[in-house]
Design brief:
Elements: H1 3-23, H2 32-35, E1 41-46, H3 51-64, E2 71-76, E3 81-84, H4 90-93, H5 96-102, E4 106-108, E5 116-118, E6 122-130, H6 136-150, E7 156-158, E8 164-166, E9 170-173, E10 175-179, E11 183-191, H7 196-202, E12 210-212, H8 225-228, H9 234-248, E13 255-258, H10 269-277, H11 279-282, E14 289-299, E15 304-315, E16 318-325, H12 333-341, H13 350-362, H14 366-382
Parallel strand pairs: 1-2, 1-13, 3-4
Antiparallel strand pairs: 2-6, 3-5, 6-11, 7-8, 8-9, 10-11, 12-14, 14-15, 15-16
């Protein structure tokens, strides 16, 4: 089935859901979509391929659905995006300049774990349950059993780290989870036909010399299912996963396509999405870190070169302290101090730093201006 055909079916299914939603009484509660069903489980597929909308939908289900005695499986895919864990540092996890050039967004999820690259060749599965029923190995068994049923020759095994390996080596699925007071969710990726070259180009550090207690990702060799099962189609994979979920949890749930932007069905989900898109959430929630790095400075007229040392402390994504050690024959001590001072309180961000530098640059001329400009450029480069 082609992508356009599948999306046509998605649109038709959602149109029927919208018609059903319009027929419901206005007196129904906001969670009536979930509570009206007698089933002990639901299987949902997101109509959206926007990473923020899908993460907001996860948060909404976790916050609003009574999961005592009920499970929900959510299937979703995203256009190219990088997703970091709740306690990670984006500057050490991903290549922010390359992502900006390619128009790839960065999102921070609420679960822990490592950084992942999403695109339409990757399937995300989120298993929602009560905290008491939280069982990651059982969830991964749904995936591995479905794959073995589809292609008995595939050697797929879940590990103690809750990854799924192909042929004992190649990672095709990674895991993260979040436990609340009464509920839980466990989500995992499943690489079907992801762009591995894009994955490797964006999952590398932006900034040198960062020291932090943030959770680091653990690099692993990866593979796509399509590399080892070339005939495996999307609809075949989705069908097998839904069937195996029903079998494992003794359910009879049909796949239902939903729109995560539908406020009548998910009241308040838009506000959750806005927060996930914000700088304060994506970068401001980064654990405190320090950066210490060397800057190589060169000048053509007159020829000169030297090294400078930059030290920063960053909290909540903002520069708390900055110290520049620049040779005095390159730049006067006064200017080094002023350059450090203008960054205090600013976001650790090349765009904000460039704006802060601009007024200082305008006050200088000649050779001093040229050298100051080169120093500023070097600082912006190491800030990702």
């Amino acid at each position: 089935m082609s992508e356009s055909t599948m999306m046509s079916q998605v649109r038709r299914t959602f149109s029927l859901l919208n018609q059903q939603a319009c027929s419901w009484s206005c007196s129904r509660s906001s969670s009536s979509f979930f509570t009206d069903s007698d089933s002990a489980g639901l299987v949902l597929q997101s109509h959206s391929t926007d990473v923020y909308q899908n993460l907001a939908l996860e948060d909404w289900i976790d916050a609003n659905v009574d999961l005592q005695g009920r499970g929900v499986l959510l299937l979703w895919r995203n256009r190219p995006a990088v997703v970091i864990g709740r306690h990670q540092n984006p500057w050490t996890e991903c290549n922010l300049p390359a992502m900006r050039r390619a128009g790839i967004p960065l999102a921070r999820r609420r679960s822990g774990g490592g950084t992942v690259f999403h695109d339409l060749g990757n399937l995300n599965l989120t298993f929602f349950t009560s905290k008491k029923a939280y069982d990651r190995q059982r969830n991964l068994k749904v995936v591995t059993d479905a794959l073995r049923r589809l292609r008995p020759g595939l050697d797929v095994q879940a590990t103690d780290r809750f990854d799924i390996l192909l042929n004992g080596r190649y990672k095709i699925s990674g895991t993260a989870s979040r436990l609340s007071r009464k509920s839980s969710y466990h989500h995992c990726t499943l690489l079907h036909s992801a762009d591995r070259s894009a994955l490797s180009s964006v999952l590398r550090p932006s900034c040198p010399g960062i020291q932090s207690n943030a959770t680091p990702s653990v690099p692993s060799p990866v593979a796509n299912l399509l590399d080892h099962a070339p005939s495996l189609q999307w609809e075949e994979l989705l069908g097998a996963l839904v069937q195996q979920y029903n079998t494992e949890f003794d359910l009879h749930s049909a796949l239902t396509v939903i729109d995560p932007t539908n406020e009548s069905m998910f009241p308040g989900v838009g506000e959750m999405e806005v927060e996930l898109r914000s700088w304060d959430w994506t970068f401001g929630k980064t654990p405190k870190f320090t950066m210490e790095t060397q800057l190589e400075l060169t000048n053509e007229q007159p020829p000169a070169c030297c090294s400078a040392r930059l030290q920063m402390e960053v909290k909540n994504g903002r520069i708390e302290s900055c110290h520049l050690d620049v040779p005095v024959d390159w730049l006067p001590v006064r200017l080094s101090g002023e350059l450090s001072s203008v960054l205090i309180g600013e976001r650790f961000c090349p765009h904000r730093a460039a704006a802060a530098f601009s007024a200082l640059m305008r006050s200088e001329s000649g050779a001093t201006h040229t050298r100051l400009h080169r120093l500023c450029d070097a600082m912006l480069t190491v800030m990702g």
